[in-house]
Design goal:
Blueprint: H1 3-25, H2 30-54, E1 65-68, E2 72-75, E3 80-85, E4 89-94, E5 113-119, H3 121-124, H4 134-141, E6 145-151, H5 157-171, E7 175-181, H6 185-188, E8 200-204, E9 209-213, H7 233-247, H8 257-260, H9 267-289, E10 294-299, H10 302-305, H11 307-314, H12 326-338, E11 341-344, H13 346-352, H14 369-385
Length: 390
Amino acid sequence: MNVVTLCKVALVLALLVAVVVLFVSLPRKRKELALALGAFALSLLMGEVFLRLFFPQISDHSRMFQPDPQLGWRFAASQRGRIVMPGGVDNEIATNALGFRDRERDLSKEGKKRILVLGDSFVSNISVKAEEVFTRVMETQLRGVEVWNFGVNGYGQVQESLLLQSSFDRVRPDLVVVMVYLRNDFLDNVDPTWVYARPVVSVEEPGERLVIHPASGAGEARPPAWKIYARSHLWTLIGKSLDKLLHGPPPSELAPELELCRKDSPARMDQMVAAMTGLLTQLQQFAAARGVPLVFVLAPSHVQVYDHLWRAAIGEDPQARFDRALPDQRLMTFAQQRGLKMLDLLPAFLRAREAAPALYNEQEQHWTREGNQLAARVLVEYLRANELAD
């Protein structure tokens, strides 16, 4: 039991003791005390309702997923939930019968071209409305084309590769798009930690052979049903307030860009790049063997795009040890050497970054409606220029 929980328990016990003492010591005032206690309980109830309606403290994010023996986790099918995140994100989302954040899909093909998009939370985009997600925007811009969204929060290319293998024959896509989120996908391919354990990859010598390690370990423990207080927004707010009072504001996140964009990259980064390039090759070979083109799309982080966030993350860099475009350049060079189709979104986002409103939710870090629109436009232009759409 942590300090915050102890404080909350102590607060409840103190209130109970105070009520008992008052009832015992003031027998003639019990009616007034009962009325006051009732008014206090009613105010707590009203506070709970107010928070749930206007300032929710609990997100359904984790509840939207379920364990999967091969992939680690996946979206629960036909599920609805409320997503609450820092920066004012408060959004209702729903999954379809296939278990993805997309409209309902018919697996039987009826003459329409089908694009399958794989990726993490930058594809599922749970911080915006369903019609604002870039895959849905693309579908409105491409005539007679279905754009299937198979994005799942937290996925890396290991899971995307496994998902493509397991779903290809059912979906029968005409084009596969794999989005690589540069900020965390390098790490996600080798780090098993998320809400649930994930499968990871290692690069074994000789020949840099990829080895997939299955997911192992239990997922996030959920409170038992009898712990009603764990689902209370008011109780959660009290906990957050006590935590801030006792421990101060949370420490700032160590920016992954310090490792990703460092020119003299450490050995660990070189290993992550080797794992990433091996997985991209594996994805390309799988699609090519089935006669289907595959396009990789590089999604930059908000720190790469906005100067004030870049300076806050990197600090003063008089010796130019960091380059915000370095991870993009590494993968683009690899793609050119191997003949892979790859689109880097960073240049387009850098050109549009001064536009208002913002392209990213700065705290929640994912694309806003405008960011999704920009990603859709650039991707559609790329597909048309390469005769891969319409």
